[in-house]
Amino acid sequence: MTHKPVIDNPVDQVRLLIEEFTRSGIATLHMRSGPFELLLSNDPAAGALVTAQPAAAAPTTPAAAAAVAPAATPPASAAPAAAPPVTAPGAIPEGAVIIVAPNLGTFYRAPKPGAAAYVEVGGKVGGEDEICLIEVMKLFTAVKAGQAGTIVAVLADDGAMVEAGQPLFALMAD
Amino acid sequence: MAIRRLFVANRGEIALRIVRAAQALGIETVVAVSDADRDSVAARLADRAVVLGPAQAARSYLDPRLVVHAAKASGCDGLHPGYGFLSERAILPRLCAENGIAFVGPEPDVIDSLGDKIQARAMARAAGVPLVPGCDGVATAADARREGDRIGYPVLLKAAAGGGGRGMVIAHNGDEAEAGFHRASAEAVAAFGDGTLFMERFVPQARHVEVQLMGDGKGGVVHFGERDCSVQRRYQKLIEEAPCVAMPDHLRQQLHESACALAASVNYRNAGTCEFLYDVAREEFYFIEVNARIQVEHPVSEMIAGFDLVQEQLRIAGGSPLSVSQDQVRLTGHAIECRINAEDTARDFMPSPGRITRWAPPTGEGVRLDSHMSEGAMIPPYYDSMIGKLIVHAPTRDLAIDRLDAALADFRVEGIATTIGLHREIIAHPDFRANRIHTRWLEQVLLAERKGAAA
Description:
The complex is a heterodimer of chains A (174) and B (455). Chain A has 174 residues and is mainly β. Helix content of chain A is 9%, strand content 33%. Chain A is built from one helix and twelve strands. Chain B is an alpha+beta fold.
């Protein structure tokens, strides 16, 4: 960016970026700033670059695909019920990519009750590997890793409600 | 069981309105937001906000399973749907019931039957509510003349099989009815393969009048008077008033009785509105439909009744009977509401989303603002363009118009285009002051004059 953005809200900043991107005609824009990562692309295959992508929502048209990982921004939730567990930022190694929930739902680390978790900390994953489930009213959606690497942190509790955009895993890309 | 923690499944000013009503009753609140509404005033004011999904409503506010899942997971025992979005979709109360959540609204079956035009008309007829005079199954030109004579001209001839304005003819006398039959029937055959027509009385200058109802589902129904919502553009209301001073008292009483009879016939629970077309020339009113939700324009009724309708909704959903009897409802003075939209009236009401750089609303006696806006607020481009409702209350309609004019003149908004200027033009128009308006007045008179002046 050559000028200081007039908008200070991160959501608005992304919106502004998307507008600029659309106007520019650039095929793919992939940026990372601290814990924040953004991929904008007109290429449906570009999803492999990105951290999180719900398996059910693979891009079907070459429209701009965007994924945002606001790791440092805790969800806009206050008390009274259990606030989502947010790992201290220090626990996430520098350079890790944050995989976030695509929508609100219940976070499940295993394909069914009693089964082993899809992945543990230290586990290696491929980009197409499913790493958790998000359930909404008995409808389960698998979340894929999005890129190959090693899971370095699990950021939400198994069985807890997670909100859209809430960090689920930290992954160190290969 | 009284609601202890309420899930607010809406956004904008109504989400804020519901949060405040709940807080006044000591009810905890959880507000559902999309990614675009994380910083909304309702989200900040509530005990908690949960992000449902991305900005697109289909993946956040409009997904009933997602909404009820979030309500249950956040420990809510009540859910208020607001207006729009899922408020009149029976699946929402059904899912709530399956999950032990009290829905702030009618029973799902009541929503379904009132939402079906044919069923709703049958229910209205059974409850003795007047419908637009008409008849089905006009098969010959002679039938058309005979029925037209009976119904009274002008009449509208429409294809029984279709809609969308095809095969629609207006007839002003018997000869036109016969000629119109041949034309409309031929068009109907061409379009739908069926030349059968139906006829109904055509009301060239109608007012939109509606009754504010509240039922407790235990046999109790009261009304809070009527509203006149005749200033409309493309069937969207812009200004609403209470009471409807264009209607004589004896008719208003019949109007209230009709609406209450219909609500009682379905043992209605929740706030609701019974909408009517008012034919000023004939002094007759006809049923349109029932809206089974709190409406945008509910504040004008609250102002003249001095009664909080949203709080009453929450009490009733928690199992309480009506807190007032009809004798206790006292309607005083006159109230007018303007819907302030972020739209550019000079550019065919194009939405004007963006950042509000200045927000200085009017204050004063009898002035109320229901809005979720503030200086620096961002109006996202994904939802409707209403940014607030300015409501005034005064002893008479004339005084209310004066008060509204002063309030609109004081209302400063910068950064976006708004309809504030148009509202000032409307209420300054002699037709508005003299109350000579109808549902097509804004488009046929005021906006036409505007175009003429600009040309």
